[in-house]
Amino acid sequence: MTREKAPRAPTIREVAKLANVSTGTVSRVVNDASDVKPAVRKAVEEAIAELGYVPNAAAKSMRMGRTRTVGCILREINIAQLGGFVSTAQNVLNESGYALLISNSEGRREREIKLLRSFSSGQVDGVLMGPYTPIEGEMEEILRDLPVPLVMIDRDQPPWCDAVYVDHEGGTRLATSHLLGLGHRRIALLTGPMGLHPAVSRVRGFEGAHAERGIAPLPDLIVSGSFLRDHAYRATSALLSLSRRPTAIIAGGIDMLSGVLRAIRTHGLAIPGDISVIASGRSDLSDLHQPPIAVVGWEQSEVGATAASLLLDHIIRGRRDEPRRVLIPTTFDPQASCAPPRGPGSAEGP
Amino acid sequence: MTREKAPRAPTIREVAKLANVSTGTVSRVVNDASDVKPAVRKAVEEAIAELGYVPNAAAKSMRMGRTRTVGCILREINIAQLGGFVSTAQNVLNESGYALLISNSEGRREREIKLLRSFSSGQVDGVLMGPYTPIEGEMEEILRDLPVPLVMIDRDQPPWCDAVYVDHEGGTRLATSHLLGLGHRRIALLTGPMGLHPAVSRVRGFEGAHAERGIAPLPDLIVSGSFLRDHAYRATSALLSLSRRPTAIIAGGIDMLSGVLRAIRTHGLAIPGDISVIASGRSDLSDLHQPPIAVVGWEQSEVGATAASLLLDHIIRGRRDEPRRVLIPTTFDPQASCAPPRGPGSAEGP
Fold first, then answer.
1. What region holds the HTH lacI-type domain (chains A, B) (predicted)?
2. pLDDT tens-digit readout, A165-176
3. Sign of CA dihedral A83, A88, A94, A96
4. Options 3.40.50.2300, 3.90.550.10, 3.90.190.20, 3.40.430.10; CATH of A69-166+300-330
5. Is the ipTM of this complex over 0.95?
6. Under an 8 A CB cutoff, do B56 and A121 touch?
């Protein structure tokens, strides 16, 4: 390690002198600007290497008022479907010389608030997030006072903010219609807290599909409150223990399918013989399950690219006009996990 | 948003005066030190809120020489098994007042190097990573010159560095023995680049289990070079197209199972009737697949907790003695995805 350094750190002036360029050019190389000729960049990089010059990010950030970093708060990092979002957002940001730093809130309110406060204190130049905490009270205040631009991910609140959100309503409407068309009349929808767009939107689509056919949805079979996979497991277990259990379940959250499948297995039920299943978002699990699971899908990469572009517009070009709201469309992909329900005589399973 | 601020930003002195404490106490509250009494913390936080004081992280970091942030470079964020690693590491760091920031290298050499350079320039106080680039040449130099402490994750190089790595050799030896005991003689091992510990270690266990029984492994069935799921798909497809295809496959990487399963499905083969399968690391996919997939497993949370503790020792207590190397044990969990191979007459499938 280089704990033992030369007695005095080399300066940017020394680098510039050795490379025979201006200090501004050294700064542009260090900051990865795109307007530096390759030969010049090479000379500066060689001088940096020869002198062992290390630009100090803290000093640089004070000088330039920029961290060249965007913060992203995710509920969990290992949700399979977030990979497409993160890698695309990162690519778009990198093209403009920005890094993406990710933090894990575990969906906990105090952690979300702490991360936002830390971002507020100058750690990043912009924030991408979809808070798990409903946007009211303290959370709303912190977001309003955030000193850097913010783009909301899959949230339609607050209204003054740029947002990229998914048309869960449309996809859930198609999925529910498909099940109703197969003859299901006891369809369960599991989804997250009703203060959040993805839950509200899915319930709207679910109810809309019922209304279109003049069928009343069964309110006891709409279970909202959490997007967590453990909640999906417990909620599914409870539904499957009802004397008249549902004949189909829609997992209304990107990380809920595994909980639903585990509960169905625990109850010894077969898909689709005993129960039909629909997932939100395509994944290895939905694809490789036997039978493959029907999916309400959308392009997570489109969410990532759009959100990163909107944020860069604010950071680099300082856009200040009306907030922009982008709705990402959904599709429904029926698969062998959905079949007509058994007749009433056999509805309780074998 | 607060682009329009008060003409002059409040200072730490004004906060201290209003809260009737010293500036040192304000600083300790801002930096989340644990030795501040709740009542004092509350008074300071109220003064901060009243005045709208925003500590500047960049200025703070220059004053204190600390960012209170640890950087972690992952190959991909959506590898299911990394969730346990990240959340545990984050919890251990948070208890000491440090945040964990994650960056995605996509396993690309130039991105790993760029992220390390950016970390070197004062962005973080320490680094957790397992480079995908073999630790030699430029990568070795950058790691050696890193001005902050480093703990390697699942790498046994470089020798001067603290490292937490997994005993893939032991688990792969158990898995291979299990398959040999069932009568398999054409076992394939897919794994990553031979410059990296997880690949080297798995090959050693694979060859060791063969040697124990006096059986020669078939070198053509050891496919190394990449841990990526797409590589696993292509390598499995190639193996299944051989005139004498393997009767069992070990997916020797935490993100390779989905590629192996896709290729087996494309070839229309049944598990375990036509081919036995073993995964590295338990996941929703290994658990919920029908049949469940046998797994070489270990505690990712133990990797995360150990690595974070070692790093904090360096950052907070400035440890400078011999590097510490921690080996995390593995287990083998046989499942219905492994069965005896069919007789030679039916080895080509139905």
1. 10-64
2. 999 999 999 999
3. negative
4. 3.40.50.2300
5. no
6. yes
